[in-house]
Specification:
- The structure holds two protein chains of two kinds.
- By secondary structure, chain A is α/β, with parallel strands linked by helices.
- Chain A contains three helices and six strands.
- In chain A, helix 2 packs across helix 3.
- The longest helix of chain A has 26 residues.
- Chain A is elongated, with a radius of gyration of 22 Å.
- The N and C termini of chain A lie far apart (67 Å).
- Chain B is α+β, with helices and mostly antiparallel strands.
- Chain B has one domain: Lipid/polyisoprenoid-binding, YceI-like (Lipocalin), CATH 2.40.128.110.
- Helices cover 17% and strands 47% of the residues of chain B.
- Classes of the chains: A alpha/beta, B alpha+beta.
- Chains A and B meet through strand 5 and strand 6 of A and strand 5, helix 2 and strand 11 of B.
C-alpha cells in the first residue's frame, strides 16, 4: 500500500512537473529566427511572376515560409518604424520584392546584386518579406 | 510669342491639375492593435501596409497583410494567425473610404487637422462599415495620417473559445501612416 502510494505520488509529480514544463516552454516559445531556417531559394523576378500569375497558388507555396531571394537592389530606405527596407527589381517596373530588415544592414548600393532571406507575408503591390537579413 | 504663351499656359494648367490630383502614398504604414486581457495584454504591430490618399477627394485606401502582425509572444502570434484571423485563408485586410471633411484640410499649409473617416473595413473576409476620427498633419510637405478606433471581433466572425472571456470582444486599432 505504502509502495503503491509512493509510485502514485511519483507519477503525479512527474505529470505535474512535465505538464508545467511543456506549458512553460510553449508559452515562452522562442521567436522564429530566419537565420536558423534554410529558406526556399528563388530569384526576385520569378517570385514576383509566380505571384502575378496566381496569387492563391503562390501563397500556398510561400506564405509565412522563409524565402531566400536573389535580386538587384533598386531602393534602400528607412521606414517610419525605423527599420531599413530594400526593394529588389523584378523586371516589371511596377512591382518588386519589398524586404523589411530585422537589423540595419551594412552599406548596400542601389544596383548591386544581393541575396536576402526573410519570411514571406504575401503580396500587396510588391511581394513582401519581413524580418529579413542580407545573406550576401 | 503667342504660341509660347499658350504653351506656358498649358504647362501651368497641367501642373495645377497634377497638384489637384496629388496622391499621397506609402508602402510602410503602421497599424497596430491592442486588447486588454486578464492573462497578458495582447499587442501587435505591422508595417506590411500600403496606403494611398487622394488629396482632392479625400479618398483613402489601406491594404495590409495579416501575416505581418508581430507579437512579443510567438505563441500568441501563432494563435492569432491560426485560431482567430485565419490568416492563411484570409491573408489581407483592407479599408476603402473617404475623409468626409477633406475640404477643411489644407495640404499646402503646415498644421494638424482633425479628420473624419468613413468607409468599408474588410477583415477575415467580412466587410463592415466603420466611422472614425483622426488627424492629418502636414509638416513641410510631409503628410501623416493618424487614427484610433475600436472594432468588435464578433462583427468580423472572429471566433475562438476565449473571446468574451479571456480576450476582450473589442480591440483598439491604431493607424499611423507617414505618406511620401
Amino acid at each position: 500500500m505504502n509502495n503503491k502510494l509512493r509510485i502514485f505520488l511519483i507519477i503525479a509529480l512527474v505529470v505535474v512537473l512535465g505538464g508545467g514544463a511543456v506549458a512553460y516552454f510553449m508559452w515562452n516559445k522562442p521567436k522564429r529566427n530566419v537565420e536558423d531556417e534554410k529558406g526556399i531559394g528563388i530569384t526576385a523576378s520569378l517570385l514576383v511572376k509566380e505571384y502575378q500569375q496566381n496569387e492563391a497558388e503562390a501563397n500556398k507555396k510561400y506564405l509565412d515560409k522563409t524565402i531566400q531571394v536573389t535580386g538587384n537592389v533598386s531602393d534602400v530606405k528607412n521606414n517610419q518604424d525605423g527599420k531599413a527596407t530594400i526593394m529588389l527589381t523584378s523586371g516589371d517596373p511596377f512591382t518588386g520584392v519589398f524586404c523589411t530588415l530585422k537589423e540595419r544592414p551594412g552599406s548596400i548600393n542601389t544596383g548591386s546584386s544581393v541575396i536576402i532571406k526573410g519570411i514571406c507575408s504575401g503580396m500587396l503591390t510588391d511581394v513582401r518579406l519581413r524580418e529579413a537579413v542580407v545573406v550576401k | 510669342m503667342k504660341r509660347l504663351f499658350i504653351l506656358v499656359a498649358a504647362i501651368g494648367l497641367a501642373s495645377t491639375c497634377l497638384q489637384a490630383q496629388k496622391i499621397y502614398s506609402t508602402k510602410t504604414g503602421k497599424i497596430s492593435f491592442f486588447s486588454n486581457a486578464p492573462l497578458e495584454d495582447i499587442e501587435a504591430k505591422t508595417t506590411e501596409v500600403e496606403s494611398k490618399l487622394l488629396a482632392s477627394t479625400g479618398q483613402v485606401v489601406f491594404t495590409l497583410l495579416m501575416k505581418g502582425f508581430q507579437f512579443e509572444n510567438p505563441l500568441m502570434q501563432e494563435h492569432f494567425n491560426e485560431n482567430y484571423v485565419e490568416s492563411t485563408k484570409y491573408p489581407k485586410a483592407d479599408f476603402k473610404g473617404f475623409i468626409t471633411n477633406i475640404k477643411d484640410i489644407n495640404f499646402t499649409k503646415d498644421g494638424t487637422y482633425p479628420a473624419n473617416v468613413n468607409g468599408m473595413l474588410t477583415i477575415h473576409g467580412v466587410t463592415k462599415e466603420v466611422s472614425s476620427t483622426g488627424t492629418i498633419s502636414v509638416n513641410t510637405g510631409k503628410v501623416t495620417a493618424k487614427s484610433k478606433f475600436n472594432i468588435t471581433l464578433k462583427d468580423y466572425n472572429i471566433g475562438g473559445s476565449l473571446i468574451g472571456k479571456k480576450i476582450a470582444n473589442q480591440i483598439e486599432i491604431t493607424v499611423e501612416c507617414q505618406y511620401e
